[in-house]
Structure formats: structure tokens, C-alpha cells
């Protein structure tokens, strides 16, 4: 079962290439903690504009992908009762619902109107469990334990009590109307149907349905299914044909046929499974699936499967990228290397040791001799031509698995101390190791440090053997060892690259992945494809080519795809920029942070699948499914609310909304997609004001103030990041009414009065014109001169004011920086750190997410000041600050607390990941030997790590981290301890 889930063993039979395995679904969960009013979901529906609706015992819930809106007896508009029985979408796109008191309601999303049909005697005042419409427009209702009724097209409720010989008093919540308008009802004592003449019948004996619970389901293609006992039957030519038998699953409680024809089946207490061309697929025990009864299954417009259960709401979202993590059996999620051996087994190196996925798909931990009570961290893997597996570790030397034998090469075997980040095997079968102090060859299984002139003697980050040459990656660029001679291509001169993470041979070319993009080495000449040429990130770790000529490139920000022809066109200068496809958490990655300086960090298996080591387990994808994910359907936008001067408006009640002049019009909107809805981008265009679209980013509202009188039409469009804008727009039409003095009739009267006044004044002026002409001319000249002088003085005063404001703003900015920034390191100072700690403590308590604190102290810093001067000490502190800034994530906060003491605040990070972060930073410290510009000067640090506990104060968290720091110093420095 685990093999089928992971896709590591070949599936029996021919699977539908369009049907992904269950491992390609991400599972999302919502409960009352996320805003649901109740955890029991009875029914799910989606209206035409895209909103999802959920029926619960505490009201009707509408979901837009970001927020739950609850309708109950206390809201306006409100329900007649909070207990919602079921939901139904009619052919006109209207939402029907029933409640626990026999009432029926209808919501029309096109007009935002609600209409209710209260309970009508003699129908019982009980919950209506099922609801379906027939071809005549009658809405059939299943009253719990009391029979059937229907709401006719005139709004009259007709009730038909349960016949004495029919088991309707023990009815189940499933009701279906077939193509002949027969109404099928599920009960705990078999299947019942009502014929068109009004008579009730049990299912024919020829159906051969087992006794007990049986219920109907009408699939989207019109097929009528029956769930009875442990079987699923389909009605064909008037007979029930057994299609699937699923013994041992208990009661079957919900059924869904998806758009591919696969059947999803919910059970009473055994979760969810799928039946299709892959056979019966179940989720492994490690996957969190609904507990208790599954009462509702629904496929939305984007193909996601929604599951309503007693334990909450679940969504199965198909993704391009699947993940293999600790919950699937890996010993740890922080994977560093992955290798497929010649037997088809998958070997996984991580910070917690070595795992192997056998040919049958089972994952097991391969024990290596423990170091200091912990499994060695595995950084690199390689298989030699004799089938032996070589394993490079962080600080524990090299292991070799030869059949059932395990051999260890430690630092006492001529192997330099430090970590082994790369292993390669050349054409002659020689194994080469990349160590912290140069390259080692394993000749006759004995380590020998390569000491040829020009061979690097520092940290080796990657290795590759190709065509008789050994390619060596370091933190100072690339070296090529060929026939005893060493070549050092100058990567830094072309793009500033220093650290080399990997190599990829493509024909006669060698592609080099670095911290400044991709470099192509061809016949001694370098070409670069980096950030300036369109790569979305600087640092790229490993590039692999799949069977469909796709190139996959791992990075700290997800996985990128391109092809070799495009890369060469940009490298040759024939194409100015490259446009790569970028995949991350939105496409299913549990963690978009790939791993570099370890190998292999990515591979293409013999079956064509791509596997990438990340900080959140192994990410895997099948490139044959790529086309289905290249173009997502744009999310349809809808207007959620309109307010005028803060008052809600019924904008759907009329074709064009009337707005008073000089009003503030506020519009809230949302794109109805349920695939990472918080990343949807928007743009608006107000016809009558805007000539072009205005992009709003992720802003979900727009406001207009003081619009001139006239007619306006607001257009709203949405898209997924990097995708197409939606052709379907949300549209709001409104008119701004003129003020009294802007009315045309008032303006006409004013114009007429003005004309009459001008005529009178003209006549009066003619009489006095000659007498006052000269005097008036002189007066005009004097006043004009005065006005010119006043204007000049005002212009000079305004210029002086602007200059003063500029100086004040610059001085304010400088004071603000001095108050929050450490002058020496440029890091946040103690004041800003305290403010960030208080803020993140409050956020962590509200969200329940982890928060970790690292306090680190430079070891023997006084000796640096004493031996090399305080100026060198200051330079070291400045470089430490720069290193911490580069090593930390964007969400982390490094700060200088004072002297040689620093702190890092890591949000959404548990203590074990914080320790791993300390380990990575320590690697960067160890890799540097010229601190403060002093060649050979090495700097280390001791660190204390503490994770926020429940109801813990910031001072307590600081004390625990301080205590752990002093413990690290007491244990010998250059280490981290958990407090």
C-alpha cells in the first residue's frame, strides 16, 4: 500500500495517465478553529459564480477561499433554523437548503435574494435530509423517519407519509431522482423507490442487493449507483450490476464520481478511498484523513475533492509535486542527497542519517554507527561500478556499503577532518571524495589526499567526473583536473560567482550551478545565464534533464524548468532573456527550500520521475503530467460588498446603482479560487475615469472619493501569480448624482440670470466708460504690479519651506536609523530586537506557530582585540553581521545585542530546525579563514537555542537561551545547545 502511495513500485495494469496517484494530492483541513461554526459538515455545494457552501448544525457557511461567512438565525439575512439538513443547486444555479424544522430556503446569487417556504402541515416538522429535483421542476424532500414530500412549482408543499410496509422510518440521508422521475430513497433496511404513479416499492429481488443499509447516488453523467453492503452497483438496462466490492470497509456513507470517472468512497469510520483504473487506492496510515463518518463528497470547478466529515472539512488538492516526508517513513525531513542504485532502490541522506526505499516501496532507516549518540548527518551519496554505495557525512567521515558489509573511513585513515559534501566515480572506477580540506582519491580503498599543484585545499562543495577530467567545485569557484594539470575558469570575473554547487554535462558542454546563476563551459569559454538574464533567483543548486528534454533546476525558492535549447540561446546571446517555469508550495512542494553543497541534490529516476532533496523532505514530480499544470484557469472575480460613505449597499438590486455626489464608494472583491487563494492578484479599471487597467497586487478592495457626476462601470479581473487574467470580469455599474448646483436646470437658470445681469452692467458701464477709462487703466496697472510682487514673494517662501521640510525629513530618517540600527554591523540593535521579540511573541501565541530564539557569542573575542587590535575586532563584528544577514531567511531577524553577542529570532521555526540553522551558520564560519582581513584568522561561536513555550514571557525565553549559551561555552565552545 505504501508503494502505491509513493509511486515507487510499478502499478499493476494500465493506469489512466490523466489520473494522478493519491500521493499527488495535498490534504488541507478546516475545523471550528479556522472559522467553521461546527465541525460536522452535512452537505457541500458550489454556485455558478464560484462560492462554496457548507451545511452544518450551526448554520450555512459560504467560503470564498479566504474567509468563511456564516448565515444563521442571528445574521441579516438570517436562516429560520441553524441546523441545515442538505443543499441542492437547481438548473438555474440557485442554492436550495433545508433545515431541522422542515423549512426550505432558496438563495439566488445572481440577485442576492433569499426566499423561504416555511414548514407546512401536514408535513412533519423534522429535518429534511435529502433534496433533489425531477424533470417537472418539483423539488423532492426526504423527511427523516417520516416519508417523502415535494415542493411544486407553485410553492405548495405536498407530503406523502411513509406506507406501513416500507422502511422509510429508518431512512438514510441519501435521495436520488432517476431519468424516469422515480425517487430512490436509502434506508437501513434496503433500497426503496417511489414510482411516478405515487406507489412505493422495495428494490427488485433481481438486483441481488444484500440486506441492510443501501442508498442511491446519481453521478454527473446521469448514471444511477447503489451502495449496499460492501458493494457498489450501477443500474444498467433496468438491473443493478455489481461493479466493485470493497470488503472490510464497514458502512459506505458517501460516493462521488469525479470528472475522470474515478469513484471516491467515504465510510463510517474507515476514512476515504478511491476506485478507478489504478484499482482500489487508500491513503497510508501516516496521512491525515477524515475521522468518523464521511457525510459529504464534492468536486469543485477546479477539480479539488472536498470531504465533509464529523471531524471537520477536508480538501484533496491535486498537485504537480508530491512529497515524501517523515510521516511517510523517512527518519527526518531535512534531506540533503538522493540516489537511485542499479537495483532501483532509492537512498536518501538527511540530517538524521540514511534511509533506503526498497524495490517494493518500503522505507526503512539504514543504521550507521552513531556519533555522539546521534546518527551521522549524510551529505553525499555515490555508487561505484562494483555496486558499492559510498556515503559522505558531516563530520563522521565516509561509509561504504558493500553488499551486507559496512566499512567506515574516519579521520584516522588519512582522511582530512570535516565534512564530505561530494562524491564521484570516474571512468576507471576510482572514487573521489570532496572534503573540507581538498580532494581525496580512494585508491585500493585507501584515502589519499590529492596534492597536485593548483588543486584546491579548502572546502570542496561539488565534484563531477567527465571525459577524463575531474571537475571540482569550491567556495572559490571551479577547478578542472585533467592529466595532472589544473585549470581554474574565472567565474567571478563574469558574474561574481564564488560558490559552486553542482555540474551537469550536456554533450560537449559542462553547465555549472553557482551562487550567481548558471555558467556554461564550452571549449575553454564561459557564458552565463543569471539574474540579469531572467533567472528568478541568484543561487541555483543542481540541474538534471528528464526523459522529455526538460531541464529541472533546484534552488532555495523552489524548482525551475526550462530546456537546453533555450539555455543555449541565452548563453549565446541569440535571446536576451530566459523565461523559466517556477514551481513552489503552490504546486505541492512541502518546502520550496532545496539543498546545495550536497550531492546528488536532485535526480531523474529510470521511470522518468524527478526527485529533489529539500528542507521539507523529498519533492517528486512526473514530467508527463506537466502540461495539465502549465495553465491554470484564472480565478473568477466576484464583488463581495459595496459601501457608500460606510453604509452597505444592495448593488445587485438594480442594473445601475445610484450614488450621491461627493460620496466615498468602497468595493470589496475576491477571486474565487481555492488553490492558495491568498496569492491571487487583482486589477481594476473604472470606465469613465481610467483609460487603462490598474494592477492592485493582492489588494482586495478599491475606493473612490469625490467622483464627478456621471455614469461609471467598474471592471475587476483576477489571476494566479504569473497566470492569465480572467476573461470573465466582476462588473459594478453605478451613477454619481450631481449636487443641486450641478443640475442642468439650475445651471440653465443661473446662466440666464447671468446674461441679464451682464446686459444691465454693460449698459451701465457704457455710460461711465469714458469718464473712468483712464483711471481704471491706471488702477489695473498698479494692482497688476502688486500681484506680481506678491506672487514672487509667495514663490520664494514656498521654495524655502520645501527645502526646510526636506532637511527635516532627512534628519528624522537619520534619527530613526540610529534608534533601531547598530552602527557597526548594520544589524537591528537591542531596542529593535526587543520590539520584534514582543511582536513575534504575541503573533506566536495567537497563531499557535512555533517561535525560536538563538543567542550566539563570538568565542575568545577578547583575544582577537588583544592580538590584532580593536579595529580588527570591529571588522570581525561587521563581517559577522554581514554573514548572519546573508545566512538568515527573509522572515528571520538577526540582531546585535551588544559587544560580541548576537541574536536570531526565527518565526514559524521549531527548536530542531533552529539547531539546523545554527549548524548551517557554523559551516559558513568554518569555511572562512580570513576574518577581518587577517589570513588564517578563524572565528567560531557558541550558541544557545530556545523555543517559546506556552504562556512564556520574552524574558524567560531570553534566560533559557542565555543559559543554553553558557552551557555551550562550558562544553568547549564552537557548538550550540538547546535550552
From TrEMBL:
Gene3D superfamilies: 3.30.70.270, Immunoglobulins, YVTN repeat-like/Quinoprotein amine dehydrogenase
Domain GGDEF: 849-979
Enzyme class: transferase
Molecular function, one GO term: kinase activity
GO cellular component: plasma membrane
Listed EC numbers: 2.7.7.65
SMART domains hit by this protein: GGDEF
Classification via InterPro entries: Diguanylate_Cyclase (IPR050469), GGDEF_dom (IPR000160), Ig-like_fold (IPR013783), Nucleotide_cyclase (IPR029787), Reg_prop (IPR011110), Rev_trsase/Diguanyl_cyclase (IPR043128), WD40/YVTN_repeat-like_dom_sf (IPR015943), Y_Y_Y (IPR011123)
One record GO biological process: negative regulation of bacterial-type flagellum-dependent cell motility
Cofactor needs: Mg(2+)
Keywords: Kinase, Membrane, Transferase, Transmembrane, Transmembrane helix
TM spans (from-to): 748-766
SUPFAM superfamilies: Calcium-dependent phosphotriesterase (SSF63829), Nucleotide cyclase (SSF55073)
Entry-linked NCBIfam families: GGDEF (TIGR00254)
PANTHER family named among the record's database cross-references: DIGUANYLATE CYCLASE DGCC-RELATED, REGULATORY COMPONENTS OF SENSORY TRANSDUCTION SYSTEM
Protein name from the UniProt record: diguanylate cyclase
Native organism: Stenotrophomonas panacihumi
